[in-house]
Structures are given as structure tokens and as C-alpha cells.
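Possible regression after last week's pipeline update?

I re-ran a chain I had predicted before the update to compare outputs. Posting the input and the new output here so someone can diff against the archived version. Not blocking, just want to make sure nothing changed silently.
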Amino acid sequence: MVTATGHSAPSDPAGELRTTQVTQADIKWLRSAKVEWNGCEAGAPIIIPTGMLFSQRKQERLGTLLPVFFLHARFAPGIYKVGADKAFEVTPEHIKLLKVMSWEGPAVDCKRPYGNFTNFTIDMAKALGLPITAGADRIARISPQDDERMGVLHLQMQNVVAAYLRYADLSPGAYQVPRDGLEPEGAARPRLAPPTQADFQKFLEDIAAARKSDESWRPWSAIAELYIAP
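New output (post-update):
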């Protein structure tokens, strides 16, 4: 089988990948979703498709399509229309943050949106390569100026996710994704550049080794690695 990306499907005797057929109607439905702001904890974007209530965190169609979009859709910096008359510039900094956002299904983790630090601005600074220091108390810190700027960038990520969902390049066709879709939680995230056949082959090798390990985190790590572009 040749997938929508033009690659032959790799040999997968263990069934670690599944093939999802995406139609133009599927893409239109996904692009029609709203990106709202979830106000819990630090706050974070959440994707809410038409007809899905805020409390409905999971829905079968979204759970099928979102892994395809995260793994295969292309997206780059640029100026995008995200509202009725609103143009928004997605910068290279926004792109770096989008690639490290921690997703729980259609929602970004509102407690730790970008990683594992309790102070989420530290994770943002790490992703952007900003100076991080630690005093005698061994607590990571950034400058007050950077901390304030991270807060502004964080609020802008609602527009970034909205632009990504509406304008990222994805055509109808057959796409391969890890068999469990959005599970395990937190592994799937926007890759922004489709994986190559070599990337899939490496994933199959990594996940095969991980399944044999006694360490429960290794399969999660192998799946998460596929969603990270160089």
C-alpha cells in the first residue's frame, strides 16, 4: 500500500500502526472546530469541534482524526487569519512552543502546558533556549523580563493552535499513525512535518524493543519520539 505521503507502508507484523482514511469532509469538519481557552490552572487551548460540548473531552471522530493531523500536517511561521477580521503572525518562537505542548486528547494540559516544571514559563524558556539559572535553593528561574514575555506568548498560543488547525497542510488520503491513536496520553503532539519512511521504520524498531522491556515508560517514549520532528 502507498500512503498519502507517497511512501510504501513499512512491514508491520506486530500491528503497531493503523491506517486511517481521511476524506475532504473529515478535514473540513476538523477545521471548523473552535479553539477555546481552558481556564483551569495556568490555562491552555482546547479544541472543541462543532456539536461537542466542552465537557466531552473525547469523541470517536476526533480521536481518529487528531493523531493524523498531529503527525502528518505541515505548518510553518506566517501571517494567518484566525478571526473574522483578525490577522495573526505565527513566529518561529510560537512554532517551537507548539511542538512541545503537552496534549491530553484535544486539550493542552492546563497545569503543565509545555513539560514537567510546576512553573510552566521555565519549560517555555527551555524550549526557546533562554537563560535558566538556579540559586542555592536549586529552584530554576528566568529573568523577570523573560517571565513576563513567556506569559504573553502563552496567551498567544490559543491563536497559534487556531491557525494550525485551520491552515496546516493536509490532503485527503490514507495515513499511518500509531495503533492506539491519542493513547498513551501525552505522547501525541503536532509534529509539523510528516515523518519519512525511515522515521516509521525506526519507530517500529523502537516500539518492538520497548514492548520487551520491563520499564513501563518505554512504549510511551517510543510513540512520543515519532511525533517529534528533527
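Follow-up from reviewer: compared with the archived run. The first strand starts at residue 17 and ends at 22. Marking as no regression found.
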